[in-house]
Amino acid sequence: MSRKGTIGRKEEYTAFGMLALFLFFFLVFKFYPLISTFAISFLDRNSLRNAASTTFVGFSNYRTVFTNEATLQAFGRTFLYSGMYTLFTMSTCLVLAMLLNKEFRGRTVVRTFFYMPYVTNLIAIGVVWNYLLNPYRGPVNRMLLALGIPEGRLPLWLGSNTSALATAAAIHTWVGLAFPVITLLAALQQIPRSLIEVSELEGATSFQRLRYIIIPFLRPTLIFVLTLTIINSFKTYTVIMALTEGGPGTATQVVSLQIYADAFKYFRLGVASAEGVILTIIIFIISLWVRRGDNDEA
Question: Is 148 contained in some domain?
Fold first, then answer.
């Protein structure tokens, strides 16, 4: 066998080895938990004593989910949180990507620092934001007080039932904004410069360039970013746990936190599994709807 053939065979073995490693981890850490959760949702595993129970109870755990007021409220808060987070992210990432795409001094440094929240420990971020937004001693409210806002009108931020969820969504947007911005920035740099120059010569306004050139070119990337944003909004756990732990009261108790509470506080493993299955189905349907809407319009 020639040397070239030997090298090609080694590369094939290396590729198969990497694929096998990926497949192993996927089956162990993704596929098996998914199938196991689906199976447990039909079993009577609702305490530590019967954690190994294989008693089939049908849709009993699902009936519990749909008849439990706290769980239904958690699903409602999740949809509200998802709407706010998606709106905040999608309305901000394109603007920031377009700004970062412009030539200015220190652009590389700005891009680097802009990515920092995305790779920072979320627990540390929760601690910092809880300090910044402390309604009594936090720097943000102190600054508002210095600007002349009466003390009685200072926002409670994470300490109010009415503002905690929106504040958490805004902070989550700040944390996760780097990935969609960089994704859109990469797509912006693929737009032929000649099209922009011709549109400028033809007298097109900035809005017209955005509508007829930039948005059509970015459409596939925007749909991709939108899909990931929606998925992340429904799966959020660490950010809210670090900021509020579901409080005040249950104002930020979204489904992911409800699943954790049912599984590891109340040991209702079957019910928690049913909630996880329902959440997965919701995410799948919404993602499919977004992709289908894009295909219909295309």
Answer: yes
